[in-house]
């Protein structure tokens, strides 16, 4: 097709009117699904879809599956904001957006199948159940995972680049002169393990030995109370010579708990100990201290997933892949640059980490 879409030829080949073809190619909703699929199939054969503007979303029904907590801003603000990003991305289009709560693992397969039969396409947020991934792949409908991965590589996905975000965050603290860094991590999901692996990679790149007994506090949740309690206990038993110069928290609420523990111990932020977060959206300031952080992409995930659905609609035979979104450094006042402090014992140089 040169210069313009030959709508009349598509109409003749598909046996529908020119106005129907125009509505389908414009992404309008007032066409029967069978007719729309037939028109799109012929348009694809003729090479017309290759020239369509990417702003046209050739879907009119979209189902979003997510863990129950994702629909409550107080339970999981991250996933709640991802869902808002999806809603904003489809708002300019004639798309009926529906939602279904689904457990991350041991999901209700019958419920999933029933909902998938009612939609043209789906987005799965944080769903790790491999059986659900298999069903989604076999149903042959556009489907994209968000902050999850299909280990058998059948479904495309979009996710924050957790490992690189962890590495970059630790590397920033090293660049500010810190060597005694204590990481506070909740490892309830593999994505958090990826962030921790990135932190370990940064230590390894500096030829420094990461000792999990000295440089890591593992938490059971992202709550500020648990972080404050665990860090407070750590500080009470930590010799002054081994006291960290910086805390790297895997979330804003963990960072808030760290600041509380430091204040209770009579330590100032950042004069005595710096605090940095890998999150950066929920708390711009903690106890009036502007928080330095690496912002994990959140709102962008929904828009990127919708674009991937469009690509699947335009090119259904394209191989699935994974899109990893980078974080963004926001420098505020909770991290200070230091020179080598001889009052702190140097960490061991080592070629491997624990």
UniProtKB/TrEMBL annotation:
It holds the Pfam family Peripla_BP_3. The keyword Oxidoreductase applies. Residues 5-59 form the HTH lacI-type domain. PROSITE patterns: HTH_LACI_1, HTH_LACI_2. The keyword Ribonucleoprotein does not apply. Keywords: DNA-binding, Oxidoreductase, Peroxidase, Repressor, Transcription, Transcription regulation. One of its GO terms (molecular function) is DNA-binding transcription factor activity. It comes from the Bacteria. InterPro entries: HTH_LacI, LacI/GalR-like_sensor, Lambda_DNA-bd_dom_sf, Peripla_BP_I. PANTHER family: HTH-TYPE TRANSCRIPTIONAL REPRESSOR CYTR, LACI-RELATED TRANSCRIPTIONAL REPRESSOR. This is Cytochrome-c peroxidase. It comes from Pantoea conspicua.
């Amino acid at each position: 097709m040169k210069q313009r879409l030959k709508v009349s030829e598509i109409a003749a080949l598909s046996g529908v009117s020119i106005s129907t073809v125009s509505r389908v190619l414009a992404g309008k909703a007032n066409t029967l699904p069978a007719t729309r699929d037939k028109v799109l199939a012929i348009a694809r054969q003729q090479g017309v879809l290759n020239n369509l503007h990417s702003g046209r979303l050739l879907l009119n029904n979209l189902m979003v599956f997510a863990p129950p907590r994702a629909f409550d801003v107080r339970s999981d603000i991250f996933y709640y904001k991802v869902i808002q990003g999806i809603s904003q991305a489809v708002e300019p289009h004639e798309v009926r957006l529906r939602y279904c709560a689904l457990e991350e693992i041991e999901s209700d397969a019958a419920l999933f199948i029933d909902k998938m039969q009612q939609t043209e396409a789906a987005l799965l947020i944080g769903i790790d159940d491999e059986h659900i991934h298999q069903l989604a792949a076999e149903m042959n409908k556009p489907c994209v995972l968000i902050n999850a991965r299909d280990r058998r590589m059948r479904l495309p996905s979009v996710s924050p680049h957790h490992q690189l975000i962890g590495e970059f965050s630790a590397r920033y603290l090293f660049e500010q002169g810190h060597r005694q860094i204590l990481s506070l991590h909740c490892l309830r999901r593999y994505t958090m393990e990826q962030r921790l692996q990135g932190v370990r990679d940064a230590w390894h790149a500096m030829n420094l030995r990461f000792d999990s007994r000295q440089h890591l506090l593992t938490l059971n949740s992202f709550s500020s109370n648990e972080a404050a309690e665990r860090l407070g206990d750590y500080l009470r038993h930590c010799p002054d010579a081994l006291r960290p110069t910086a805390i790297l928290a895997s979330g804003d609420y963990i960072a808030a708990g760290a600041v509380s523990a430091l204040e209770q111990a009579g330590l100032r932020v950042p004069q005595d100990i710096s605090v940095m977060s890998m999150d950066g959206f929920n708390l711009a300031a903690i106890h009036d201290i502007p928080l330095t952080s690496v912002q994990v992409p959140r709102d962008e995930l929904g828009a990127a997933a919708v674009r991937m659905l469009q690509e699947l609609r335009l090119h259904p035979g394209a191989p699935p892949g994974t899109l990893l979104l980078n974080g963004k450094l926001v420098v505020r006042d909770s991290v200070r640059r230091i020179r080598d402090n001889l009052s702190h014992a140097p960490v061991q140089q080592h070629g491997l980490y624990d």
